[in-house]
Amino acid sequence: MTDLPQIGDWKGYVELAALQDERLSHVLERAAASPFYADRIPTVGRTRADLNALACTTKRDLRDSYPFGMLACGMDRVATYHESSGTAGQPTPSFYTEADWTDLAERYARKRIPITPDDTFLVRTPYALMITGHLAQAAARLQGAAVVPGDNRSLAMPYSRVVRVLHDLGVTLTWSMPTETLLWAAAAREAGYREFPALRALFVGGEPLSLPRRRRIEEIWGVPVVEEYGSTETGSLAGECDQGHLHLWADRAIFEVRDPASAEIMPEGRGQLVVTPLYREAMPLLRYNLEDDVEVSYAPCDCGWGLPRIRVFGRAAFGYPVQGARITQYRLEELVFGLPADLEVMFWRAKTSPDVLRVQIEVPCGRHDEARNALTSAIHEAYGVYCEVTALPAGSLVPRATLTAVHDVVKPRSLFGADEEWDKALLYH
Ligand SMILES: [Zn+2]
Q: Separation of 107 CA from ligand 1 center, angstroms?
């Protein structure tokens, strides 16, 4: 595939829509090759009007079509198979061809802080079944960077190893969930690493990130945080511009918004994000409802990309009732990370009941009263609810052992020497 559009190939939204329309007949034709879409789309015409007549494809549809119902080509053309995280026992399948991977890698590589051949790139997201680790790796390889695969779900890569490679290899860019970067900061402190002069930026995604937490991560590491938005079923869907806004890759997919109350599908506004990828061979998706709560806007941005903007709320609106108020993780996070930076609060948890909100924060010794009082007031001011804030010593919520442990990943073994523990026989860790 050589005709993938690049930023700058269109002038304004009218040209962008024309570019999408031109592609759409291929997309609908391709989709007709999958069992799921075969009898859902017309055999002639294949225009945007045909797309507009379609109902959304849901996550449920993907699960019901497991394993091959969405596949529009033979397995001989499939390069990778993935499943998204989430509902246990109900796999959500995704297939990609080699050409699909060019589109995937290019979209991820669109970063306001570019990935270059001089970069050493630590990938710290899962490689098993999900796409995220492979996606970052493919994009970094495409740009000529050196990849350090550091899967965050593997016993082979405890935090002590992460901070060692960050430091010793002079890692310049990383890809992880935002929470990971705070765990690295704590692990680095435990290991005695003070400076990471090579680090240029932290690429993050996969988790809601409030502005105060983002600012705190930037203060701690002294480098910019760059956000990314996507899914295993679609790859990267949006990235940050130099003005700090998330833009949708609307040259590679058509984006719409579904109002969950009326089921109406609109070009912009607040609702669930609906995606029609324009360059998919293995598993075409038409009006795929990601079920993420978002807001899409075509307001102009000074970056000049000419791509719509998106705000992702995810499950930010989801909350639990306490004394008549609805407590959300997102707002609580804002309050916790709104505490003065010198209190060094990085880890917290909270539990709700109808009568009381209980919050625990890790705070260095000597600052407990101050931190507790500050957070209690902030929560009271924000919600008007009674809360119990407990300040705990470092290591209470994230145990030191998590930050310092060094696992020996061993191969299966049956024969042991006289002075060895044979309890490890046949265990893989
Ligand atoms: Zn912009």
A: 16
Give pLDDT, residue 415: 85
Q: How far apart are CA 308 and CA 266, in angstroms?
A: 14
Same domain, 323 and 311: no
Q: Give the three-class secondary structure for 333.
A: helix
How remote is the CA of residue 310 from the centroid of ligand 1, in Å?
Answer: 10
Residues 98 and 142 in one domain: yes
Note whether residue 410 is domain-resident. Answer: no
User: 178 CB contacts (<8 Å, ≥6 apart)?
Assistant: 204, 207, 209, 213, 214, 217, 225
Asked if residue 285 belongs to a domain, the reply is yes
What is the tens place of the pLDDT at every residue in 38-61?
Answer: 999 877 778 899 999 999 999 999
Q: Can you point out the beta strands (E) in 1-85?
A: 78-83
Q: How far is the CA of 341 from the centre of ligand 1 (A)?
A: 29
Given a contact cutoff of 8 angstroms between Cβ atoms, the answer to whether 296 and 269 are in contact is yes
pLDDT per position as a tens digit, 64-121: 999 999 999 999 999 999 998 765 568 899 999 999 999 999 999 999 999 999 999 9
Cα 210 to middle of ligand 1, angstroms: 19
**Cα 240 to ligand 1 centre (Å):** 7
Given 288, 315, 342, the domain boundary residue is 315
CA of 242 to the centre of ligand 1 (A): 6
Distance 296 CA to ligand 1 centre (A): 13
**Could you report the per-residue pLDDT of 132-170, keeping only the tens digit for each?**
999 999 999 999 999 999 999 988 899 999 999 999 999
- Centre of ligand 1 from the C-alpha of residue 298, in Å: 11
